[in-house]
Write a structure and sequence with these properties.
Layout lengths: L3 H13 L4 H8 L3 H13 L3 E3 L15 E3 L5 E7 L3 E7 L5 E8 L5 H14 L5 E8 L2 E3 L2 E5 L4 E4 L1 H9 L3 E5 H11 L9 E6 L3 E7 L2 E2 L30 H5 L1 H12 L5 H9 L3 H25 L3 E5 L4 H5 L1 H10 L9 E4 L4 H19 L16
Parallel strand pairs: 3-6, 6-10, 11-14, 14-15
Antiparallel strand pairs: 1-2, 3-4, 4-5, 7-8, 8-9, 11-12, 12-13
Helix pairs in contact: 1-3, 4-5, 6-13, 8-10, 9-10, 10-12
């Protein structure tokens, strides 16, 4: 396995490459000879490449940036909901190669693992090095401790997926996985600390501090959903008035507008009606936007992280009412505090699946054995 220094180099090149040797020595606190020594086995074994000479604007020899070898490996990522599988194939930097949504045929764990294998193979992407799976709930050491949307308790799901696909499987809470994707390859890359807030069927919350995502069993409990945001808001299913779930979930927003219009509407129609100026939809959307701003400000205030990544399948709310969200954030921040920087990932369910793929990529880096690199990152998938 890699030493700590080798792992740090591999991650730095993967996340920030192409990257010059001078930037690497500064980022990793290494001397140039130490960097040369560490990089040599990666270059000799074809895991990294030196790119053509280029000038970095300084006086002296042109630099030859280091990068990951093109086409080194592919990965699959799967986000499981109670109704569907959202499956992606990615490159080694979680760049999207293919995406498919597949209805969930049942909730038996073995059956779900078999469905995942069929969909991954059907993406038509070869050389899959590993598969990551994310879901709502608590996971540990490849086991799903509980997943309320699937009615699972103590399921060794990584082992089931590995048996179907013949490649290493990584299991993670969906919010933690999304935070990892944003930290390594997404809107949060290069930001030392930020909160991740997702809105959609539920309310999600994750945290990155000092460049590390917080991994906690608590991520699967849904603690952000019942934070009070509006004293006179609607009531959630648990009886909490004006909480995040009542104010911000797509189901609650659609139900409020449906009641006002006395006809059923879904979330997407609510956003279209509000954009067209419908009074009932506009009122509900404005209140939801203000609630989102208050939630962002509260998260930033309590965590001392003045940046937030907003994501989830319901994040179209932000683009429709951005000014109201930003005004609510500012209203709940001390004027002497740093303004909260907002970053929006509007890629929907594919963002969740890319999060799962990122966890598989991280685990693949940790598995690298430079003495056995003929296997590269990967075994050959089972047929």
């Amino acid at each position: 396995m890699l030493s700590d220094s080798e792992r740090a180099l591999a991650r730095a090149v993967l996340i920030h490459g192409p990257i010059s040797r001078s930037e690497l020595t500064s980022r990793l606190g290494l001397s140039p000879p130490s960097l040369t020594r560490l990089a040599k086995p990666f270059l000799d074994r074809g895991l990294m490449v030196e790119l053509d000479d280029r000038s970095d604007g300084s006086i002296g020899r042109p630099v030859r940036p280091l990068d990951v070898r093109p086409g080194l490996a592919h990965f699959a990522g799967v986000k499981i909901t109670g109704e569907a599988l959202h499956v992606v194939a990615t490159d080694v930097r979680a760049g999207l190669l293919a995406y498919q949504e597949h209805p969930l045929g049942g909730r038996d764990p073995k059956g779900v693992a078999a469905e995942i294998a069929r969909v991954v193979r059907g993406l038509g992407v070869d050389r899959i090095a590993g598969v990551g799976v994310s879901l709502g709930g608590a996971v540990r050491d490849g086991r799903v401790e509980f997943a309320p949307f699937l009615d699972w308790t103590d399921v060794p799901f990584a082992r089931l997926v590995e048996a179907e696909l013949g490649v290493p499987a990584s299991i993670e809470n969906d919010l933690v996985a999304l935070a990892e994707a944003e930290r390594w390859f997404g809107r949060g890359a290069g930001i030392p600390g930020f909160v991740v807030i997702t809105i959609g069927a539920g309310i999600g919350y994750a945290l990155v501090v000092n460049g590390q995502a917080v991994h906690s069993r608590e991520a699967g409990v849904g603690l952000g959903g019942h934070i009070p945001l509006a004293a006179s808001g609607p009531v959630c299913h648990a009886g909490h008035r004006g909480c995040a779930e009542a104010m911000l979930t797509s189901g609650s927003i659609a139900a409020q507008v449906s009641a006002a219009l006395q006809r059923p509407v879904d979330y997407d129609e609510v956003l279209r009606l509000a954009a067209a100026g419908d009074p009932a939809a506009t009122t509900v959307v404005d209140e939801a936007a203000a609630a989102l701003g208050r939630l962002v400000a509260m998260a930033a205030n309590l965590t001392l992280q003045p940046a937030a990544v907003l994501a989830g399948e319901g994040i179209g709310l932000f683009s429709l009412a951005e000014d109201r969200v930003r005004a609510a954030v500012a209203a709940d921040r001390d004027p002497r505090a740093e303004p909260v920087r907002l970053y929006v990932d509007d890629s929907g369910f594919s963002a969740w699946a890319r999060g799962a793929a990122t966890v598989a990529i991280q685990d693949a880096v940790d598995r690298i054995d430079l003495d056995q690199v003929e296997q590269e990152l990967l075994p050959t998938p089972a047929p």
